[in-house]
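Sample pair:
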Amino acid sequence: MALPTTAWLQEKFAPIYGLIDSAGEPVVIRENNDGVFTDHAAIKAKPNPVKLEDLVDGSTAKQGDFFLICRANSFPVARRLEQKDRVRFRGRDHAVINDDANQHSIGGVVYARVLHVRG
């Protein structure tokens, strides 16, 4: 059995990320520039809460954290977000713990960014 090609994987998986726009929740990226926050237009993200049973000793994740999966092509900031930046989600500001653009990529094409947020 032959392994699937990169092109085949991209064709099959790319449409799945479009579902974030219909099933996701609005989030606002708040970019911190020397203490002045720039609020970008809201985008959609699929929230995944960190559950107690998913925690691992030594991990940076804590109960109450969220992983927000955001479509890369709608993400308003080109640079990687840092801990000084914020994400407004469900009416509250959340600190950015990590911004991962590698987890959801196929053949060098980034389909989603995963924001680990706390707040």
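The beta strands are 25-33, 36-39, 43-49, 66-71, 86-89, 92-106, 109-118.
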